[in-house]
């Protein structure tokens, strides 16, 4: 018998550390030496190194938990807000000015809250089938809303009471060996996490689930529990980091944890984990955290410079420090996330470094890694039974069977509710159109996002693109003194450039759309603050503001005065932006519902592979949809500046959450393949009316703004669950069919 020739792939890679971690160590050392050369006052001192390790500790602890989630092929965008929320809850429970609890009770309650957040994330993603980025993004906004609401935008301190509990608060201080105790706790967490992920059954189950969940289930692995467990570990890691921050700072501010989810995800990806799941090591994630924190410190600390100041005609050299402007660090972190995600498919999976090393040694290249990892790919189109019901129904039943019927009914009910609560306000024509102005901005964003979601993608950057376009226009108007048309053109250029990057990263480089647009979310938001130096700009030509004024104001600007009557009454309440939104909505609605392009959008989102087999250029469809979303957000940003006659860097905040909720409430599917313009606009009306009702002064009570954001986040989760279980799975139809079968049986047995 002739022996079969086999190919040896060599020793399997270590599950604890490898050459990638070694390369990270070398790079960190070189970067630190560069920082010491540029800014020796900080990086050249032992205090600077100690501060770097201390700050890395909290990020690294969260990165340990995030590694389990990402290896599972999931994502946790809520860790930053969890970190901030736990720190705020600790302060509220412990501080003498609030509940004044003991330290043990406070810690236990914080741990229970952290576990509850992780469990909720896990249940939403696994049992309730909510996409991970939607579930945890919503938890991010809800958590941030709770942070702002519980602090009222103010810091909370408890340094006096902290002296009564030295054992716990010593965790945030330097020990007898000369280093901060947080560093030791980080080392313990990293060691335990590395061993659990690399050498235990928990780790094997995590890698199997992330590599191929369906195969893992066939092998008897409880995949749902593995994913829930990862979210629990992630949330508890953020809780531990927050408790360490509470011990160190002896207080909390509303900014705790802002954008930390970006830092942590970038750390894990830079550490060698794959956003596609099945790959990652805790040691690499910890080194990635050290690298990201080091880069952040290099950027924030700046470098020493010498400036010449003239006093009484005499030039005097003054030592100063150059630091990057507001928003620059956020831009860099967003870029870092996108670059980190690109490293995995283009460097790690293609083994570029190993192949280069083999070429230098004149040896054969290593075998190519598997680029797939998914054995069975299911189609995305769902809810066929609901579609059949819509086709077979007649009369009122046909309307109720529509996916957008819920949004239309809700919008009408909410408007009638406002009329019943405050008829004096609600029935006033000018107040009604004031609500319509708030609706216009959201509706414009929703129009573009409807195409993106129907095509099976998502755009998390629309609110930030709105801010970027607005800041660009405001900068040209105020700082450069440009004319209105130039300002509009430059704002359009900036917004469309952001859309081009989104589309190129998603379609050209094959990044998941939520990762590409999440990176742009931070990049665009940072650029918006950078352009205006973090300040509010105002005071430019009224000619630009006309695009945000009422029709009568525009006519008066050009010397046209309407005679008294119905036309003048309407012109005095209808805004130019409302008319423009209506025109855009009509065109976009006709294209989506009645043209081949619209059909191709829904086909692409329903089943990407089948659409490609049918001859549809799916890449082109997705590219144009993302560009349209950016265009609509850009138009909203330009109008925002004109309407308010100023630009604020927080413009467009939470708008991505509102817009996604609007599309889903309006009948769009988070899985793609569905969407109508009437439904999306009705969904935007629902969100606008809910915000108006919550801000309505009823018998002296008005809900604070931060609680409104929490409420909108809950609405988004409910809307997604309705889409998944009522529209897609048709759970109501299943229950009706089951009861219909049981009813005759029960009647027969009774007789």
Automatic annotation (TrEMBL):
**Its principal location?**
membrane
GO MF terms listed in the record are: transmembrane transporter activity
Domain of life where this protein originates: Bacteria
User: What PANTHER family does UniProt report for this protein, alphabetically?
Assistant: ABC TRANSPORTER PERMEASE PROTEIN YPHD-RELATED-RELATED (PTHR32196), RIBOSE IMPORT PERMEASE PROTEIN RBSC (PTHR32196:SF72)
According to the UniProt record, one GO cellular component term is: plasma membrane
Q: Specify the protein's topology with respect to the membrane.
A: Multi-pass membrane protein
Per UniProt, subcellular location reads as: Cell membrane
Which keywords are on file for this protein? Cell membrane, Membrane, Plasmid, Transmembrane, Transmembrane helix
Q: Where is the signal peptide?
A: none
Spell out the protein name for this chain: Ribose transport system permease RbsC
């Amino acid at each position: 018998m002739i022996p079969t020739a086999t190919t040896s792939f060599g020793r399997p890679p270590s599950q604890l550390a490898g050459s990638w971690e070694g390369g990270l160590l070398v790079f960190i050392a070189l970067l630190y030496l560069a920082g010491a050369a540029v800014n020796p006052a900080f990086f050249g001192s032992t205090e600077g190194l100690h501060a770097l390790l201390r700050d890395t500790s909290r990020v690294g602890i969260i990165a340990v938990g995030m590694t389990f989630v990402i290896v599972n092929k999931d994502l946790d965008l809520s860790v930053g807000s969890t970190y901030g929320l736990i720190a705020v809850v600790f302060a509220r429970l412990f501080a003498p000015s609030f509940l004044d609890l003991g330290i043990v009770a406070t810690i236990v309650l914080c741990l229970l809250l952290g576990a509850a957040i992780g469990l909720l994330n896990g249940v939403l993603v696994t049992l309730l089938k909510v996409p991970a980025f939607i579930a945890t993004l919503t938890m991010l906004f809800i958590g941030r809303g709770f942070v702002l609401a519980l602090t009222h935008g103010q810091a909370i301190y408890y340094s006096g009471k902290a002296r009564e509990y030295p054992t716990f608060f010593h965790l945030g201080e330097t020990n007898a060996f000369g280093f901060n105790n947080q560093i030791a706790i980080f080392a313990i967490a990293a060691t335990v996490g590395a061993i659990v992920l690399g050498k235990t059954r928990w780790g094997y189950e995590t890698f199997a689930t992330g590599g191929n969940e369906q195969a893992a289930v066939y092998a008897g692995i409880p995949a749902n529990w593995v994913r829930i467990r990862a979210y629990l570990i992630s949330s508890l890691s953020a809780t531990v980091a927050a408790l360490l921050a509470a011990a160190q700072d002896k207080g909390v501010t509303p900014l705790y944890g802002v954008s930390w989810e970006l830092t942590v995800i970038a750390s894990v990806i830079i550490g060698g984990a794959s956003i596609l799941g099945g790959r990652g090591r805790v040691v690499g994630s910890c080194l990635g955290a050290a690298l990201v924190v080091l880069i952040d410190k290099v950027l924030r600390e700046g470098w020493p410079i010498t400036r010449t100041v003239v006093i009484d005609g005499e030039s005097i050299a003054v030592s100063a420090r150059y630091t990057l402007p507001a928003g620059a660090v956020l831009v860099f972190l967003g870029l870092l996330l996108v670059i980190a995600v690109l490293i995995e498919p283009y460097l790690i999976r293609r083994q570029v470094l190993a192949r280069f090393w083999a070429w230098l040694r004149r040896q054969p290249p290593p075998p190519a890694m598997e680029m797939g990892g998914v054995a069975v790919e299911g189609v995305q189109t769902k809810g066929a039974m609901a579609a059949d019901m819509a086709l077979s129904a007649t009369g009122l039943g046909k309307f109720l069977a529509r996916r957008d019927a819920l949004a239309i009914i809700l919008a009408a009910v909410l408007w009638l509710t406002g009329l019943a609560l405050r008829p004096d306000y609600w029935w006033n024509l000018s107040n009604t159109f004031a609500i319509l102005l708030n609706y216009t901005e959201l509706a414009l964003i929703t129009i573009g996002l409807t195409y993106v979601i129907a095509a099976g993608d998502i755009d998390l950057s629309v609110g930030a693109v709105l801010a970027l376009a607005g800041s660009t226009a405001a900068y040209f108007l105020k700082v450069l003194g440009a004319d209105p048309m130039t300002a509009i053109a430059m704002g359009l250029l900036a917004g469309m450039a952001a859309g081009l990057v989104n589309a190129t990263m998603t379609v050209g480089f094959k990044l998941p759309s939520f990762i590409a647009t999440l990176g742009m979310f931070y990049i665009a938001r940072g650029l918006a603050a950078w352009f205006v130096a973090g300040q509010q700009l105002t005071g430019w030509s009224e000619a630009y503001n006309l695009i945000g004024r009422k029709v009568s104001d525009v006519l008066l600007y050009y010397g046209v005065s309407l005679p008294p009557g119905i036309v003048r009454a309407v012109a005095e309440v209808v805004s130019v932006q409302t008319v423009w939104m209506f025109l855009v909505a009509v065109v976009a609605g006709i294209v989506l519902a009645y043209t081949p392009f619209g059909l191709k959008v829904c086909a692409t989102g329903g089943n990407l592979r089948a659409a490609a087999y049918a001859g549809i250029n799916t890449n082109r469809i997705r590219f144009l949809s993302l560009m349209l979303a950016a265009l609509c957000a850009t138009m909203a940003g330009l109008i925002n500046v004109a309407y308010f006659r100023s630009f604020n860097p927080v413009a467009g905040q939470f708008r991505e959450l509102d817009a996604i909720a609007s599309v889903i409430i309006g009948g769009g599917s988070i899985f793609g393949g569905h969407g109508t313009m009437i439904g999306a606009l009705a969904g935007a009306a629902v969100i606008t009316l809910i915000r108006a009702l919550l801000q309505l002064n009823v018998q002296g009570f008005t809900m604070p703004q931060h609680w409104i954001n929490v409420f909108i986040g809950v609405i988004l989760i409910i809307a997604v669950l309705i889409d998944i279980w009522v529209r897609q799975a048709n759970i109501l139809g299943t229950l009706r069919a089951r009861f219909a079968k049981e009813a005759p049986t029960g009647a027969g047995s009774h007789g």
